[in-house]
Each structure stands twice: as structure tokens, then as C-alpha cells.
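Thread: Modeling a multi-component assembly for a lab meeting

Hi all, long-time lurker, first post. My supervisor asked me to bring a structural picture of a complex we are working on to next week's group meeting, and I have zero experience with this. I have the sequence lines for every component (410 residues in total). Could someone generate the structure of the whole assembly? Inputs are pasted exactly as I received them:
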Amino acid sequence: MFHDRSPIYLQIADGIKNDVLSGALKEDDQVMSTNQYAAFYRINPATAAKGFAQLVDEGVLYKRRGIGMFVSPDAPAKLRAERRQRFFAEVVDPMLEEAKRVGIGVDDITHYLGSRR
Amino acid sequence: MIELRGVTVRYGSTVAVDNVDLELPTGAIYGLLGRNGSGKTSLLSVLASYRKPSAGTVLIDGEAAFENPRLMRQTSFIRDTLDLSGSDRISTVFAVARWLRPGWDAEYAGKLLDLFELHPRERVGGLSRGERSMLGATLGLAGRAPLTILDESYLGMDAVARTLFYRELLDDYLAHPRTIVLSTHLIEEVAELFERVIIMDRGRILLHDETDALRGRGVTVTGPADLVTAFAAGHTVLGEHSLGTVRALTLDGRLDPDEIARGERDGLSFGPLGLQELFVHLTSQPRPLEASR
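Re: Modeling a multi-component assembly
Sure thing. I ran the full set together rather than chain by chain. Output:
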């Protein structure tokens, strides 16, 4: 489930963000408690709590005292906007690097993309 | 808060624990890692007040722990020897635990015994290495001591028993939060349970940090020797090996993504370092480094 390449709390936060983006978690849906999460994924509860705290800080989740944590109403739109911004730097640029390495020209790529429209 | 202040353990002229200061907030699971002979068991023996340190003190919530009966009832130290008589039956051991441990949960102890497929009528002396560890784990968990110290309590357990043990440890900790210190060599299989990791090396604390902070720390860089050497300038090098003109260096610390992207453009490749590898690199004998030339 988790890998060693980055802190688990960031992996937890990314996982929940992906669930919000895919619609698996909707606005105002309640998320698991940190203890439920820790028991389910077999990790230390402090690590899980840190992941959730990160999401509260970023405004993806909000807390209701004594009840739990919920998906913020504006989270899906906000996350989508963030990902769109990163799309070119994180997805397109590395693709262009690889294309250059193997000798595929930009024209070839636009031609291919045109055929997929 | 559990505090170790200037703790030193000497055996004749050998220094097993060398002037250790450590602050452990209570209510967390700590992993104590170190190679054989690094001083783990000596440190734990002092933490549990089984041994008076040659110098220094252990304070639990500000109170000196050594020969403090109240604190000792709240401290459980499970070590290799189990400190039990071989002729005793498990049922007798449980009766003693119930008398000794205010938090003893007899029902849970029975459940763990079933899980590990041990019988209350078995005698301690007749148990295999793995079964002794299972009994130790049972005593440690069902005792529910506010400070529970488990010294390599998985020795001899097979993979299935270890998985059961880790699962019970986490579930019981979630239900009954307390301070648990677990020493181990098998880092990869338990790292996710530890809130913090303490690494000992030659009697000293090499590192004490959140386990999560160690993930993604350390990276291997591979490529043409001159490029790799140039890239490593300014980084701490943990290890290196070469084959012909190819060189691989293990660097400490977290690299900036831009730095990695630049390196990749120059034809270098980067790989993550697992916790186990990081531990091995950090606790190996330091070697003279050529990379910083």
C-alpha cells in the first residue's frame, strides 16, 4: 500500500485527494477517523493523523468537533484547478523529454494527438 | 515524559551505553534499531530499571525510576530470557502476571494464547524459541503496562506469527494507548507501526526522528563516474560502488526535485533508498570518501 520513497503522511494525503478528484469522496462526505484509518492500513495512528491534519491545513477537509472530518465543499474544484496547473510541468514536459530522447518530433506528437481527438 | 539523562552503562572497560540523553513523550510506539552490540539491550535494561546505570538517571514524569515500586508496576520489560522458571506452566505465569500487573487483561491473554496456538498447561521450559517469544509477546501486550518494553520479542517467530504479533500490537495500542518501545532488526516489516525511530550505534544515539521523516531520505545516483562525482559535491555520501566507468553513490538527505530533473537531463539515474538500506548505510563503519574531492 505505502512505499518508502516519500513520507506516508503525504501518501495518505495524496490518496484522499485522488479519491476527491475521482468522485469516490464527495463534498461533505465523512472520511475515516484516524484510528479507523490506522487500523485498516496497519500504520501508526500519529502518521495517519498527520496526513489528515495536512488536508485540513490545505482546506481539503474540515473538522466538526466531536463528530469527525469531512470533505470541504470547494475541495473538488480547488484540487482540479491545482492539478490542471501542474499538468504541463508534470505530465507533458517529461513526455517531450522522452520524445526527444527517442527521436519523435513535436509534429509527430501533434499528429497523433489529432487522431485521438 | 520519559527522560534519560547522561545514561552510561559500563561493563569493566567496555562502554555499552555512552552518555545518552533521550526524551520520549509518553503515549507513542518507538522503534529502537541498532546492530548487534550497539547497546540496545543495555539501554532498555536501564530504561526498565532492571539495571542501575553506571552514570546518569531515568526519570518518568519527573520521578526517578530506579527502585521506585510504583513506577515498576507500570513498567513491563520483556526480554529474551523471559525471566521465568522453566518448570512453571503458562497458567502459573499468568497468575503471577495478574498479581503483578494492575492492567492485566486475562481474557485478552487467553485470546492471544489461542492465536499463537499455545496451551495454558504447557511448561515454559518445553517451549521452542518461537513459542517463548509468543509467550513474551502475550505477557507484554496483555499486561497493558503504561511503559511496555519489548526487546526483540519476535525472535524465532515465523512470518505468520510475526504478522499476528504486529497486528495485535497495533490494535491493542489503538484501543489502549500507552508507551511501547520495541527493539528490532527487522525494520521493513514493522516500520509503519513506529511513530518514532531511535537508531543506536556503538553506545550512542545516532538518530531520533519521526519514522516518516526517514522515508525518501537518502537516494542513490548512478551514471558516468565524473558526472556522478560532480553531482555529489556538497552532499553527504553514505556509500559508493563502481563498475568500470559507472559509479553509484548513496547520498543522505532529501534532494530538491529540480536538482533531480537537472541530473536526469545530464543522463544520471536516481533511485530511492528503503528504510532498511538507509539504516545499513547509517550504521556501517564510515569509510574515507572520495566524492567530496
